[in-house]
């Protein structure tokens, strides 16, 4: 079943929502991860990892985004990416890499705490200025406004492409990642996994 009400989000509004999704202030908001079980009339039901089902109203300006499978070949110099990483043996090691569509370049640049797991981890949204191959791994030099990071991308890291999505991608059975608004019990943005992908966020 598909979302019956088509969401018409102007490009400027979608841009703001992507910035919301990948910015440090988003940590003050609730993130919901789970599987879509129903979608109708601007409301979605999501079964969380704990097995509970929650009903979530989509804000009138909610943004929809899609992640699809990618691989190491998508990680290239000049690409704008979002990387969640952990500190391991004195270096940052990626758990996941989102390769942004070019229309999303530059949004929420920076290096800030994230909540992928209980232990400390960081989100880095930045431009890839250099790619080095170290064995089967990649080591990226990332530049963003105000700083830079060097992050190792092991072959075990999940790599996805990240783009805006039409409403018909909000289909039952897909894995989703939801950012709730801070000032209302509504979803500000929904990231949808396609082709069996679980949004790695």
Low-confidence stretches: 1-11, 24-28
Radius of gyration: 17 Å
How far apart the termini lie comes to 25 Å
Count of helices? 1
Helical/strand content category: mainly beta
> What oligomeric state do the depicted chains represent?
single chain
Which descriptor suits the 3D outline? Answer: elongated
The main pleated sheet reads as: 12 strands, mixed
Strand percent estimate:
over 45%
Number of strands: 12
Mean pLDDT: 87
Provide the succession of SSEs.
HEEEEEEEEEEEE
What is the helical fraction, as a range of percent? under 10%
Task: Give the arrangement of secondary structure elements.
Layout lengths: L10 H11 L9 E10 L2 E6 L4 E17 L10 E9 L2 E10 L9 E5 L6 E14 L2 E8 L2 E7 L4 E7 L10 E6 L5 E8 L8
Parallel strand pairs: 3-12, 5-9, 5-10
Antiparallel strand pairs: 1-2, 1-11, 2-3, 3-10, 4-5, 4-7, 6-7, 7-8, 8-9, 11-12
Please characterize this protein's 3D structure.
This protein is mainly beta and 201 residues long. Helices cover 5% and strands 53% of the residues. It contains 1 helix and 12 strands. Strands 1, 2, 3, 4, 5, 6, 7, 8, 9, 10, 11 and 12 form a 12-stranded mixed β-sheet that branches. The two termini are 25 Å apart. Residues 1-11 and 24-28 have low confidence and may be disordered.
Q: What are the key terms here?
A:
mainly beta, 201 residues, 12-stranded mixed beta sheet, disordered N terminus, 53% strand
Report a brief summary of the structure.
The chain has 201 residues and is mainly beta. The protein has one helix spanning 11-21; strands at 31-40, 43-48, 53-69, 80-88, 91-100, 110-114, 121-134, 137-144, 147-153, 158-164, 175-180, 186-193. Strands 1, 2, 3, 4, 5, 6, 7, 8, 9, 10, 11 and 12 form a twelve-stranded mixed sheet that branches.
